[in-house]
Task: inverse folding
């Protein structure tokens, strides 16, 4: 089996175990044996991988996106985990997003102004700037999702 396949199977197993085998069966509609084949390292199951819809169902129930993270790592992509509930209804629409965007940008600029006063951005200041940048990014993602929902 190719190293990438073993890596994905290892993370598939971690995902199933994070959710629990019984709940995983209920969420995916798959049997214990079928789920086990998705992460089995036996040669006869080397080409069997969990379908993406099952991965999504399990990752929604999990505290961490094991398989998605593994896929990203294999492609050299870095993900940022959003602790907010991704399945929670986003309220307010695009107008609320524009307001939140301007508020977050103002907070970022305020942090930047304080950080650069002495001409050097310290480690703690950089962490605060990074946090504000991430929050700004989350607002942009919410705005993108609202635009897609409202305008196809």
Result:
């Amino acid at each position: 089996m190719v190293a990438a396949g073993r890596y994905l199977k290892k993370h598939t197993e971690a995902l199933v175990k994070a959710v629990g085998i019984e709940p995983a069966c209920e969420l995916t509609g798959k049997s214990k044996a079928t789920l086990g084949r998705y992460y089995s390292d036996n040669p006869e199951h080397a080409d069997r991988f969990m379908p993406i819809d099952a991965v999504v169902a399990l990752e929604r129930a999990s505290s961490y996106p094991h398989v998605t993270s593994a896929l990203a790592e294999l492609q050299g992509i870095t993900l940022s985990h959003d602790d907010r509930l991704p399945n929670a209804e986003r309220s307010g629409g695009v107008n609320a997003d524009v307001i939140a965007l301007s508020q977050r940008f103002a907070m970022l600029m305020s942090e930047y102004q304080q950080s650069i006063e002495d001409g050097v951005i310290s480690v703690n200041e950089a962490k605060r700037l990074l946090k504000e940048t991430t929050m700004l990014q989350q607002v942009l993602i919410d705005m993108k999702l609202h635009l897609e929902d409202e305008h196809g």
In short: The radius of gyration is 20 Å.
